């Protein structure tokens, strides 16, 4: 009898919706104000009541409960041919609502502190009283500044003003000095185009960007990019291209001077070799193997000397999706689809079994990114379950975890920015873009989530932002902050609050 009455109320609400009436019936007309006016002796709070309603509605197959209209709607396909409701549409609507809310919060001049009661004046006071060590003070001030970064749209300058950029950014990768950023854009008719953007900062506190006109087009997808130091630091760019139809994949080493407005007549690619499919690539900066690069393939790793052509192949049990070389020692770290992370010491050659793996450890899912920290005793690794862990490679154990990231299939790279500025101690911040199009930044020391930055555009699988986080965008005297490319737009989140957009400097007062 009880079940009959409950479903009778629900069905009457549905029928009233179908007939066009606004009255959903007395059983479904309880307002939010009524909840707020309940006495403290009530057995359920507003949050408990709303959560109970949501959970009960989710248990009704084929129905959706709208908390704003306080009524049920059918989710069966074809019920309303003009505007059919599906759970995917409703979830997308809720995500877009949350994104707009976060964008509005980001526009406010005063943002929520990353930690409760944390602000610069309080930190300065504790420092003067001797209650806060110097290194802790620098780290916490850094966190406050990261939480206060505001979005500014950058105008991409080009000598060819008749051809504005209308193709969506797919990848951006900064060089070691962050004066140049290699970009890959998806072309609407298929394939990719790629080039270099040059950044410069002015004494007035502004950042400008110029796109080279000498762009290259390819009908193949660019899977991975890294900068290469062949003749001098960041003299070349290493690209992994996926094969199409009868055209096999390849790895190409291109001179960066190809992408120049001043002197476009440069020689072609330095070298290129055909491969089946490359998931990742890395360049070695160790002086012993300074002309060596690697590519991660399906169940194998290839290490190649760009000058002599000497090749070493390592067979693996899984696809290698992420790679990075250490600097002090010629050791290559690899992340696999199986969740395994292993290292290869290039000084050990000629071993046929897998004893060449210097160290091995595992995560629960496919590794999408690896990043070696500056002291090279620690490594950051992200996987397709959204887990980000900090590993001590000496004991092969995780020492910290960074929660909040969302990922199921992306192979976006971890950006580990060290914003040192005038502080004697660097404060490292790992940042990563999730499949939900949110950019998250954590404190490297304790894993605290410092900032969640929503995308300026609606979320979509083909509009996932790509970011570069650096302490010197625009060169050695550049401006610190976060660079974000999404759709065909470029955004800058300055670390300094006195950033002047477009070089508009306020008059100084004496």
The biggest sheet, with number of strands, parallel, antiparallel or mixed sense and barrel status, is: 6 strands, mixed
In the residues, how many domains can be counted?
2
CATH class of the largest domain: Mainly Beta
The Rg value, from CA coordinates, equals: 27 Å
Secondary-structure class: alpha+beta
Query: How many distinct helices?
Result: 6
Topology, number of strands: 32
> Alpha-carbon distance between the termini?
82 Å
Spans where pLDDT lies below 50 across 5 or more residues: 1-57, 419-426, 505-510
What is the CATH architecture term of the largest domain? 7 Propeller
Fraction of residues in helix: 10-25%
Question: Kindly state the mean pLDDT as a whole number?
Answer: 78
Determine the CATH superfamily of the largest domain.
YVTN repeat-like/Quinoprotein amine dehydrogenase
Strand content: 35-45%
CATH-derived topology of the largest domain: Methylamine Dehydrogenase, Chain H
Keywords: Repeat, Signal, WD repeat
Biased composition (Polar residues): 28-38
Biased composition (Low complexity): 39-58
GO cellular component, one term: Cul4-RING E3 ubiquitin ligase complex
Note down, in words, how this protein is organized.
The protein has 510 residues and is an alpha+beta fold. It folds into 2 domains: 2-36 and 44-85, no CATH class; 120-502, 7 Propeller (Methylamine Dehydrogenase, Chain H), CATH 2.130.10. Helix content is 15%, strand content 36%. The protein is built from 6 helices and 32 strands. It has helices at 2-19, 32-36, 46-58, 87-106, 120-128, 134-147, and strands at residues 63-66, 71-74, 152-154, 156-157, 168-174, 180-186, 192-201, 207-211, 216-218, 222-228, 236-241, 249-255, 271-275, 278-283, 292-297, 300-305, 311-315, 320-325, 331-336, 340-345, 357-362, 367-372, 378-383, 388-392, 397-402, 415-419, 427-433, 439-442, 449-453, 466-473, 479-486, 489-494. It is globular, with a radius of gyration of 27 Å. The termini are far apart. 32% of the residues are buried. Mean pLDDT is 78; it is low at 1-57, 419-426 and 505-510.
């Amino acid at each position: 009898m009880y079940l009959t009455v409950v479903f009778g109320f629900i069905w009457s609400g549905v029928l009233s919706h179908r007939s066009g009436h606004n009255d959903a019936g007395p059983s479904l007309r309880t307002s939010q104000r009524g909840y707020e006016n309940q006495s403290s002796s009530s057995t359920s709070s507003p949050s408990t009541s709303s959560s109970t309603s949501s959970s009960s509605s989710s248990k009704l197959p084929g129905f959706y409960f709208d908390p704003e209209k306080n009524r049920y709607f059918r989710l069966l396909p074809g019920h309303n041919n003009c505007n059919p409701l599906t759970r995917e549409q409703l979830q997308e609507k809720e995500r877009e609502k949350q994104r707009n809310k976060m964008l509005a919060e980001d526009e406010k001049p005063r943002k929520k502190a990353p930690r409760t009661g944390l602000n610069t004046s309080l930190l300065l006071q504790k420092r003067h009283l001797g209650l806060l060590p110097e290194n802790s003070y620098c780290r916490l001030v850094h966190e406050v500044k990261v939480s206060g970064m505001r979005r500014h749209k950058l105008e991409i300058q080009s000598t060819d003003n008749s051809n504005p950029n209308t193709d969506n950014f797919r990848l951006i990768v900064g060089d070691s000095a962050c004066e140049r950023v290699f970009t890959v854009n998806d072309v609407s008719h298929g394939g990719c185009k790629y080039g270099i953007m040059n950044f410069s900062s002015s004494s007035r506190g502004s950042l400008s960007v110029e796109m080279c006109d000498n762009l290259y087009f390819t009908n193949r997808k660019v899977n991975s990019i890294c900068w290469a130091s062949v003749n001098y630091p960041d003299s070349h760019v290493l690209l992994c291209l996926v094969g199409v139809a009868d055209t096999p994949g390849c790895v190409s080493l291109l001179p960066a001077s190809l992408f120049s407005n001043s002197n476009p007549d440069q020689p072609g690619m330095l070298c290129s070799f055909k491969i089946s499919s490359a998931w990742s690539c890395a360049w070695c900066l160790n002086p012993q193997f300074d002309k060596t690069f690697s590519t991660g393939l399906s169940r194998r790793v290839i290490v190649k000397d760009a000058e002599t052509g000497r090749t070493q192949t390592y067979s693996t049990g899984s696809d290698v999706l992420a790679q990075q070389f250490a600097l002090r020692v010629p050791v290559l770290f690899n992340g696999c689809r199986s969740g395994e992370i292993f290292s290869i010491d290039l000084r050990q050659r000629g071993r046929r079994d897998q004893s060449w793996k210097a160290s091995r450890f595992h995560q629960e899912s496919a590794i999408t990114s690896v990043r070696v920290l500056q002291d090279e005793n620690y490594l950051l690794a992200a996987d397709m379950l959204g887990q980000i862990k900090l590993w001590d490679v000496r004991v092969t154990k995780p020492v910290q975890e960074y929660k909040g990231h969302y990922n199921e299939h992306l192979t976006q790279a971890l950006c580990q920015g060290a914003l040192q500025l005038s502080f004697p101690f660097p404060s490292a911040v790992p940042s990563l873009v999730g499949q939900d199009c949110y950019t998250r930044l954590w404190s490297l020391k304790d894993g605290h989530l410092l900032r969640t930055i929503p995308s300026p555009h609606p979320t979509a699988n083909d509009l996932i932002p790509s970011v570069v986080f650096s302490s010197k965008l625009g060169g050695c005297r550049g401006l610190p902050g976060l660079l974000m490319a999404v759709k065909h737009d470029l955004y800058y989140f300055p670390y300094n609050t006195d950033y002047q957009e477009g070089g508009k400097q306020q008059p100084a007062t004496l």
